[in-house]
Amino acid sequence: MASSSKSPATEVEVGDLTVRVSNPDRVYFPELGLTKLDLVNYYLAVGDGIVRALRERPCMLHRFPDGLAGDKVHQKRVPHGAPPWLETVRVKFPRYNRHADELCVTKPADVIWAVQMSTVEFHPWNSRRADTEKPDEWRIDLDPMPDCPYDRVRQVAAVARTVLDDLGIAGYPKTSGGRGLHIYVRIEPNWGFGDVRRAALAFAREVERRAPDDVTTTWWRKDRDPSKLFVDYNQNARDHTIASAYSVRGVPTATVSTPVTWAEIPDADPRDFTIQTVPARFAELGDLHATIDDKAHSLEQLLEWAERDEKAGLEGPADAESAS
């Protein structure tokens, strides 16, 4: 654990590297009195977990240079002057004919460097450096509408798990750090973003068929029932990212997007998983997503469902650039 002194900076040993942390006493979470150094120590405590969640992925950073009391900065590009040991991955944005060299985490020091740069949240792509155009992670985002109670989120998670079981697919759940739940699935990197998104929509529609009173897949937000849960398949679109496992969220209560077991979901309150509670939980349970890389699943069955739905006249995924 790093400690601060009266100097304007402190040095943190991370593995065999040293990261200089400036302004360690700057308050990042005013309601809790938590500082930049508290954030550093949190990420050190869950180092194996956050590195596993980010490893080899292009990663967008949500920075708060003045803490939560100031503005949030969405940063894709690693700035000039980064240490030579920091790795990046180049991603292209064909629509704008541009590219960005984004952070590519391979070790805990990369995470602490990002925190030094005032990062609170880590938002990785669902593809890796070996081929950024072929996702290896399918993300199921259970996104409650404004009037949807959390009990409904729990119920839909159980339905989603049943559909995954029927497909012979292992899903790894986590809290979103907000009001929702995420389920991550490791997939074979054999399909582009478009097909992964088609598969995700086919899955969402199957969950909706089994729980029509609880779930919507309606694309336009204004057309959704505000009491239902939206299964957000668009989180699998290219360059769409969500907070990783073990990412702190930039909210006053410093909640954490936390891996949970399926058995915990019926009773767990996502507000209980915070920067102050997750380190002890991690020390006791380890990383509940530690085995996510053990098996990569095929999307063939889901793509057959997608083709069936499309032949039946159901619309395919809406344009990813359209805001939901």
TrEMBL record:
This protein's record includes keyword Ligase: yes
Entry keyword set: Ligase
Name of this protein: Non-homologous end-joining DNA ligase
Gene name tied to this protein: ligD
SUPFAM superfamilies linked: Prim-pol domain (SSF56747)
Keyword Ligase assigned: yes
Pfam families reported for this sequence: LigD_Prim-Pol
Alphabetical list of PANTHER family matching this protein: ATP-DEPENDENT DNA LIGASE, BIFUNCTIONAL NON-HOMOLOGOUS END JOINING PROTEIN LIGD
Any one GO molecular-function label of the UniProt entry: DNA ligase (ATP) activity
Residue span(s) of domain DNA ligase D polymerase: 35-289
Known EC number: 6.5.1.1
